[in-house]
């Protein structure tokens, strides 16, 4: 059973509102096809119009709530297969073939989520107010501009998205879980960490080691998009371009599954970019998948009540910080929604 989205716990487990969320790789939404996805507590339909623009809407016919994803793609609109009701990209009912001229025609009756494509992925804005304008989508620097190159690695794991966030903000596990990998076999197996605040979040870093192993990660919440950035040093055999940068976004599918987007980036141009792309596809990609597979196995094996069984120590202060931040924002959003509705609900602990 899914925790309701209109509760603090629901927002924590399924995703805050007023945020951009990555939904799937762009290649998943092919022209002329209808794609059904569950993301961040919403049941979604994705499709492209005749111009190729992607649209994200509720997977629900305004007539009888049948699945539009089982309908017919008509180029600039979708026809429900149940009674033929046609809905356009703005969520307006364009035609009711069974009852022309009825009151349903011309009504905006289907929620439509603002959608963008960037760096090979489809993003959608999940607003607390369905009619409000979204914040501008401002992707991380390694995904913008010509001085960087990246590959998108997409996964779906049978684990809460919160466990992936814990993993990304836990640099110390690199020296243990990934000790036998091609990039994290050196460095100390003990460390003291600190949190350094930034304008958009915080950096969690080792105080006595940098550029040796998985030594730091950064949490960013900016422009309505949340992500984690981290660096992994590359050996000389990996070619030019400096460290291997990962930009990660995670999106809840439901309370027990999530989609992960890991952009594997390197600051390279010209011939160095060509060299990096060749080495990545022919030597490095398989090794990176092996490392990610170790994380998947660990996350999927975690019990549902893992947080209630923990005994945390100094290495875990970033986890505590982020959990408190997310819960506080969830509480604020629930209170704001109650205010808009004209009443308050008591905050949970």
Automatic annotation (TrEMBL):
Entry-linked InterPro entries: Cholesterol_7-desaturase, Rieske_2Fe-2S, Rieske_2Fe-2S_sf, VanA_C_cat
Pfam family, one: VanA_C
Keywords noted in UniProt: 2Fe-2S, Iron, Iron-sulfur, Metal-binding, Oxidoreductase
Residues annotated as domain Rieske: 21-124
Metal-binding is among the record's keywords: yes
Transmembrane segments: none
Presence of keyword Iron: yes
Protein name: Rieske 2Fe-2S domain-containing protein
Native source species: Saccharopolyspora rosea
